[in-house]
Design a protein that fits this description.
The complex is a heterodimer of chains A (116) and B (219). Chain A is α+β, with helices and mostly antiparallel strands and 116 residues long. Chain A contains two helices and six strands; from the N terminus they run H-E-H-E-E-E-E-E. Chain B has a seven-stranded parallel β-sheet with strand order 4-3-5-2-6-7-8, with helices on both faces. Chain B is built from eight helices and eight strands, in the order E-H-E-H-E-H-E-H-E-E-H-H-E-H-E-H. The chains are: A alpha+beta (116), B alpha/beta (219).
Chain lengths: 116, 219
């Protein structure tokens, strides 16, 4: 359960920021997950639900997790075509060249949160 | 109130990795993060490496495991300094765990520090520890298809050691295919076939380390 550790990182970042702003109750968290970031959205939701129930952080029990998915995109280094690779090993659909340069899909960001 | 952050989820880890990296630069310690699945032979490889290089370099090892001191004890038996980190179920080492144990080493007196990561081909690849080199060990019994099955690991390493080549006559591991697959996902990566057990191929790995240390200390 890699996502449990990653959610731990998110909760830590939220706590650091919320302390400074004197926010005691976090009601909504938004993240961006690339399709090739090795993060499973379902597992992330499960981890979020587990953290919500812990009294040691500022997430409220009804807090929502919004996951924005970033579609993977690669550029072929040979012919320059932009395409959506099916996996990490990007193969260009026009010239078949392997090893396209990834320009999107590897992101895993904490975008924003809401609280009071 | 809505607060926009737009930060990488691994921000705290990456900060700690930068801290470690600066320390390694100041003390001229070459740090190699060794990753593989469980049982690929990382500890045996390190034992043989320490035996071969201990007269030339001062070597330290950070051992990462879910539980027990077993690996650190194996390394200490060879006279090298070893610190064990138990992750208590965690699937990888992160840069903060490394930063926390660095004060236990006299880094000024260490030329070469190995970090033996938790056996896992997925999670350790996402965490920067501040190392200079990432090396993956892939053993013959695992099969050559692991390179394409776990691309996030093999896309980010500079060197793949194919270990246990003494078992090649008995198993179906295809080294030529492994090389081709690696070139496909990571053209810069080297692949060296070795057997830590018999010593075959180890001279090339030792040369790679010696060159790495020479280059690092020149900078």
């Amino acid at each position: 359960m890699h996502e449990m550790a990653l959610m731990g990182e998110i909760v830590q970042l939220l706590e650091q920021d919320a302390i400074n702003r004197k926010i005691d109750a976090i009601t909504r968290v938004e993240v961006k997950v690339g399709t090739l970031s090795n993060v499973l959205p379902e597992a992330l939701e499960m981890a979020f639900d587990a953290y919500k129930l812990q009294p040691t952080n500022r997430l409220t029990e009804t807090a929502q997790l919004i996951i924005h998915i970033e579609q993977a995109k690669a550029v072929c280094v040979i012919c320059g075509q932009e395409y959506e690779p099916a996996s990490r090993i990007a193969q260009c659909p026009s010239c078949q060249f392997l090893g396209g340069r990834m320009i999107a899909g590897e992101t895993f960001q904490l975008l924003a949160y809401e609280g009071s | 109130m809505r607060i926009e952050l737009e930060v990488d989820v691994l921000t705290n880890n990456n900060r700690a990795a930068q801290f470690n990296r600066r320390l390694f630069e100041e003390t001229k310690t070459l740090v190699i993060n060794v990753m593989s699945s469980p049982g690929a032979g990382k500890t045996t490889l390190l034992e043989k490496t320490i035996e071969a290089l201990s007269s030339e370099f001062r070597i330290g090892v950070i051992e990462g495991d879910l539980a027990t001191e077993k690996d650190a004890e194996r390394i200490r038996a060879l006279g090298a300094q070893a610190i064990q980190i138990n992750t208590h179920g965690g699937c990888h080492l992160d840069a903060r765990m490394i930063a926390a144990v660095l004060p236990k080493f006299e880094l000024d007196e260490i030329d070469l520090l190995f970090i033996e990561n938790v056996g896992n081909l997925v999670c350790p690849s996402s965490y920067d520890l501040g190392q200079q080199h990432k090396v993956a060990v892939l053993s013959v019994p695992e099969g050559n298809d692991k390179i394409v099955k776990y691309p996030t690991m093999f896309m980010r390493t500079e060197l793949v050691l194919v270990n246990k080549i003494d078992l090649l006559p008995y198993l179906d591991f295809d080294i030529v295919q492994a090389k081709e697959d690696l070139i496909g996902i990571n053209p810069q990566s080297l692949l060296l076939p070795v057997s830590a057990k018999t010593g075959e191929g180890m001279d090339q790995w030792l040369r790679w380390i010696r060159e790495g240390i020479a280059q690092w200390q020149k900078q």
